[in-house]
Amino acid sequence: MSVATAADPSTWETIIGLEVHAQLNTHTKLFCGCSTSFGDPPNTHTCPVCLGLPGSLPVMNGTAFEMALKAALALNCRLAHFTKWDRKNYYYPDLPKNYQISQYDLPFATQGWLDIELDGATKRIGITRVHLEEDAGKLLHEEHAGGSGVDLNRAGTPLIEIVSEPDLRTPAEARAYMEAIAKVLEYLDVCDCNMQEGSLRCDANVSIRPREQAAFNTRREIKNMNSFRFVESAIIKEIEDQKRIYREGGTVIQSTRLFNGQTGELRTLRAKEEASDYRYFPEPDLPPVTLSEAQIARARGTITELPEARLARFIEAYQLAPKDAQTLIDYRHLGDYLDAMVQAGATPKAAANWIISDSQSVLNDRKLSIESSGVTPVQCAELLKLVDAGIINRATAKDKVFPAMLDAKGAKAAGVIVQEQGLAQVSDSGAIELAIDGVLAGEAKLVADYVNGKDAVVNALFGRCMKALKGQGNPQVIRPMLEQKLQKLRGS
Ligand SMILES: [Zn+2]
Fold it and tell me: Which domains does the chain have, with CATH numbers?
C-alpha cells in the first residue's frame, strides 16, 4: 500500500471556480434596438451603436436589467443600490469598439449562493458576483477558405456573468453546479440555456494542491466548453495534465486553454491576462444605475417557482416518487404540463406516469415533445379520465387514442376518437367468456402446463385473450374470469 505524501499529486485536492456567461433572452440588444435573433445571415442585425461607429451613443435596455436582477435574486445575491458600467479595453476583430462595456469594481450583485445535489448530498456553492456586460461578435473561419469573416449580429447581446467562489472540488460537482445554474435561468425564463448555440457558456479555473496546504496553487483557465458533459470531461483532462506537470517536477503557469470536444484534448492558447491588462475605466457614455428597495422588491415579485420548491411540492402535494418528481423538474415544460393536467382534473400520479412513461414511446417515434405535440394538457387529462372511468384501457389510450390525437394535432377530443373508431373496451362478460373459452380450447399445451403447476403461463394466456378481443378487453373482467376457469381445470 502506498502512503500519500505532498509530493504525490495523485492524491491532491482539486479547486474549481466557474465563470458562467448566460445570454439574456431579450428581443433587443443591451445598448441598441437591434434584434438578438439567432441564426440569421451575418451582419443583418447591426446599427451604428453595435458597429462601434464614432458618435453613436449607447442606451441601456431596461428589460435586460430587470432580467439580470431577477437572476441575481434567484441566486441569493445581495443587490447593490449603486452600480456602474466600465470599459474593458482589448483588441480583437469581433469587437469593433475595441472595448467591451462591462462592470468592473461595482457589479450589481454579490455574495450569492446556489445549492447543488450530488449523490444524495447537498452542497452550497458560493457566488462571488453577477455582473452585466455585452457580448462580442463571432469570427467565422470555416466559411472563408484562407481567411476569416466577422459576424456582428451577436455584438451587443446582453450577457450576465456569474462568477462562483472556488468552492467546487470535483469535475462532477462543476457539472452539477452548471446544470443547477441552467435550471434556475430556464425557470426564470431569462435565458434559453442552449449551450450548442452559445447562449450559455462556461469557463473553468482549475488548480490542484496537497490536501494539507491552505494556499491555492497556480490555476489555469479552460475556455470553450459547450455542453455539460464537456465541462466535466475538460476538467478531468486538465487535472490529469496538472498532476503530470507536478509529478515531473514542473510548474503550472497561469494560462488560458481551449478544450476540443472532438479530440478531448486541451491546447494552451496564451498566458492568461490580468485585470490590469484591460485598463478598465468608467464608461463615460452611460450614467450609473441606482436601485431602490421598491425596484428590488418588484423584481423579487416576478420570480416564479424555482426548481427546488417545485421538487418539494411535487413530492409533498402530489405524492410523487422523488425520482419521478426529479425527472419532471429537470425540464420546466414537463412540470408545467403536469400542473396543467392536474388543474384539468387528472390525478397527479396518473398524469405523471402519462408524461414520463406512457406518452413517451409514441412521442419519441414521431420525434415530438409533449409540449409541442399539439395535444394540450386538458386533452390528455380527458384521455386519462376515459381510462379511469373504464371506457378504454391504458393500452388503448396509449397505442390507439393518443396517436390519433397526435394525427389530428389536437383538433379531436379523445372521446370523439374512441366513439368514431369503436375503441371502447369490451366489459361484457358474455363476449369475454366466449373469447377466453376460444383461447383455452386452442392453447392445449399452455393449459396443460398450468395444470402441471406452471402459474406463470397465466400471463401468456391473458395476452392471448387480450389479442382475441383486439386489445380492447377490460383487463379487470378478463383476468379474474380466466383465473377462475384455470383453477377449475386444475382442480378437476
Ligand atoms: Zn445595434
Answer: 10-295 (no CATH), 305-420 (no CATH), 429-491 (1.10.10.410)
